[in-house]
């Protein structure tokens, strides 16, 4: 973390073979007078809503798709970046026109 130079979470590192990798996550950081970002409040609110209502408050298909894409991406890398068939990801999902990320 390069506080004062970069406002996002940024990482750079070397693999054992000398190749470099880097990652920058664009995260909405808190104002300077606070010490932690409020990333988990919306998630906690959605968990509470789900428990109280007894059903998922956002489409579970979205979780299946994002988790599945991550799983198959990592599996492809593990196998040497091969192409994988993913019939498990043939899921119908209609995106809500309004983001649900910060509605909490």
Describe the structure.
With 104 residues, the protein is an alpha+beta fold. The chain has one domain (9-30, 37-89). It is built from two helices and two strands. A hairpin with a 5-residue loop joins strand 1 and strand 2. The longest helix is centred in the middle third of the chain and has 19 residues, at 60-78. The protein is flat, with a radius of gyration of 18 Å.
List keywords for this structure.
104 residues; alpha+beta; two-stranded antiparallel ribbon; 2 helices; 2 strands
Write a concise synopsis of the structure shown.
By secondary structure, the chain is α+β, with helices and mostly antiparallel strands.
Major β-sheet strand ordering: 1-2
Oligomer: single chain
The percent of residues in helical segments reads: 25-40%
The overall average pLDDT, rounded, is 79
What Rg is obtained from the alpha carbons, in whole angstroms?
A: 18 Å
Low-confidence stretches: none
Largest sheet composition: 2 strands, antiparallel
- Sum up the overall morphology in one term: flat
Beta-strand residue fraction:
5-15%
SSE layout and pairings?
Layout: E1 9-14, E2 20-25, H1 40-53, H2 60-78
Antiparallel strand pairs: 1-2
């Amino acid at each position: 973390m390069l506080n004062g130079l970069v406002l996002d979470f940024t990482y750079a590192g070397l693999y054992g073979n000398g190749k470099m990798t880097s990652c920058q996550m664009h995260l909405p950081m808190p104002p300077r007078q606070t010490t932690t970002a409020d990333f988990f409040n919306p998630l906690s609110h959605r968990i509470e809503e789900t428990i109280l209502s007894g059903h998922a408050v956002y489409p579970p298909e979205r979780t299946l798709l994002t988790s599945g894409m991550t799983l198959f991406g990592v599996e492809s890398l593990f196998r040497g970046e091969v192409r994988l068939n993913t019939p498990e990801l043939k899921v119908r999902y209609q995106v809500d026109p309004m983001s649900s990320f910060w509605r909490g």
